[in-house]
Amino acid sequence: LKDQLDVNCLPDHLLLRILGLLRPADLGRAAQVCRRWQYLVAQDVLWVQKCRELGCREDLPDIIGMVQVASLGDSVDWKQAYLELVFIANQARDMHAESDEDWEAELQELEYNLTRKEKRSRQERRSRSRKGSFSSSRMEEGKFSLASHIEDLQARLSSTILEDSQEVSDSRSPALTPSVLTTAHSRSGSRLTSRVHIEDRSTILGPEEQDSSEEEVVCKPLRRQLQGRRKSHDPGDAAMDIRHELRQPQEKLGKFMSVAGLPGSDQSSTVSMTETHSSIVGAVHTVRKVRKLQGHMDSVQCLALDKRRLMTGSMDRTVRVWDIRSGRSIRKLYGHKGGIRSIHFNQTKICTGSWDMSIMVWDIVQFERLAVLTGHRGAVSCLQSNQHFLVSGSHDATMNVWSLDSFEWLNVIEGHTQAVTCLQLIGRCVISGSLDMTLRLSDIHTSECLQQYHGHQAPVLCLTVQKRLLLSGSADGELHFWDLYTAEPLAIIQPHDGPVNSVALAGRRFLTASNDAVIKEWDLLTLTCLRSLHGHKGPIRQVKTLLHHVVSCSDDGCIRLWDLTKSLEDTT
User: Fold this and answer.
1) Phi, psi dihedral angles at 250 (to 5 degrees)
2) H/E run at residue 229
3) 471, HSE (Cβ side, Cα atoms, 13 Å)
4) DSSP labels for 117-144?
5) Alpha carbon distance 514, 522 (integer Å)
6) 175 vs 161, 194, 225, CA distance in Å?
7) Helical (H) or strand (E) element with 156
8) Does an H or E element contain 24, and which?
9) Angle (deg, nearest 10), helices 44-57 and 63-70
């Protein structure tokens, strides 16, 4: 009965309607209840409603349109926009208060020049008039009195957050007018679209943990207004999105036509950023936000993600589960005696492989350990599962097939002569790469080798498959393109000077990561490097993309979450 009456049983859209009835001060307290409420309080739809309410009080029914115009076409952070609007309204009221102070100063100067006798007689009259018609006549002029300003100032100082200004009498002129908003925007630049830095603790934003950090430009006047003090920002911790001049790398096989359908070009040729070539490579989506997830105490070796969750494995022997929407660490899994080398999960189970030569299977809901699978004689370097089967690759040059229903060993796949470094399940088959510089396509039920891929001159470190296109990266920095079914090499490029540790495909785009701590985004049709994402301070071990997220992990112990305006697959 308790579970049925719990307010958290309601879906998100109903909770948002309930939270929309609260004042901003109460929203800040509601964000401290749980991570779900903290996520809901940060939703734009909630703060758009608060902006509309503020516009109604200030007699600005089109305040939403004014904010969108002031944003100059950029995406609007409505929580920040609401804070800016309240800040501008308070500034306007302070201007009225300053005019009252000037009037009082003039009155004091006039009184000083009067004689003592005249001053005594006038003091009696003024004391009587201030209680009556004098104060009311000042209010009739549409200005704030000094006493009312002091009361408002004390009310604001007594609160820990910026709240909506209380309703005043109809004789007051609205503090937030279109001219005031335009003037304030011209002074502060694009403050309405800037986002609050994750290190700045504000009650209205809810409590922030140190597991993640958000690197965005912050409005300094607003930060001082909210915090009083600002923490120093490390410039070496910044993330950069560097757009390259479109350049097609040298294709070593001379088969560029079969891959891109466009004429090949040598390394010295440069594609100018014209409308023609921009239409060929498609749009390069802007990085809207970069988050730095911290919590691991050692190198982060692997990651896996879906629409809601992100899971990472580290050499500190722990697995962390993150909420991909908020960037919060929500669970830590312990049990392995060695560093985590590989991780994968499906709808019901989490599978982790370790340097301790074991595989652990966890329940994805309760996070309870269901089984420990042993049998490899080397570190479990890679694994992948579907609903019923798990395939694991090891440094003992073998791949084992396990049942996820009974947790029994089913089969062993041999053929590689050195350590298996990467694999991917394709239906009832598995494609694997090894330090022996080859790739093999095998049947997981019969262990039969269906296809071999020869051509690499260095150990194969990563691979990915999209339909019948196979990409594999090696330790010499080369990236090979293959026909999955015929094993025909289609193209070879060198995206990095160092080893290609990870590659990810997403529609017309693919990403590569290397020891140079750089992620590169490429166009698949033209094999053109579009941009480089900088931010890590060590070799990047894995990069993956899903929807509008690009996620990477590195030896620097951090995970970078790059939020794009659109998914990489939405490229036109």
Assistant:
1) -70, 130
2) none
3) 25
4) HHHHHHHHHHHHHHTTHHHHHHHHTT--
5) 14
6) 19, 23, 18
7) helix 146-158
8) helix 24-30
9) 120
Q: Does residue 449 contact residue 441 with C-beta atoms inside 8 Å?
A: yes
The CA dihedral of 214, 215, 219, 223, to the nearest 10 degrees, is: 50
Element (DSSP H or E) covering residue 540: strand 540-546
Residue listed under structure tokens 């340097």: 355
Nearest to 542 by CA among 473, 484, 481: 473
- pLDDT tens per residue, the chain (572 residues)? 345 567 777 887 888 888 889 888 888 888 888 878 888 888 888 888 888 888 888 788 888 888 877 766 666 778 888 888 888 877 777 666 655 555 555 555 555 555 555 556 656 666 655 444 434 333 333 333 334 444 444 444 444 333 333 333 343 445 555 555 544 444 444 444 433 333 333 334 343 344 444 333 344 444 444 444 344 445 556 778 888 777 677 777 776 543 443 334 343 344 433 344 455 666 788 888 899 999 999 999 999 999 889 999 999 999 999 998 888 899 999 999 999 999 999 989 999 999 999 999 999 999 999 999 999 999 999 999 988 899 999 999 999 999 999 999 999 999 999 999 999 999 899 999 999 999 999 999 999 999 999 999 999 999 999 989 999 999 999 999 999 999 999 999 999 999 999 999 988 899 999 999 999 999 888 888 889 999 999 999 999 998 889 999 999 999 999 988 887 776 65
Please compute, for residue 107, the number of CA atoms within 13 A of its CA located in the half-sphere on the CB side.
10
Rounded Cα distance between 78 and 289, Å, is: 15
Token pair listed for 78: 């409505």
Q: How many helices (H) and strands (E) does the chain have?
A: 14, 30
- Pick from 370, 371, 342: nearest CA to 356: 342
At 323, list the tokens: 């909420």
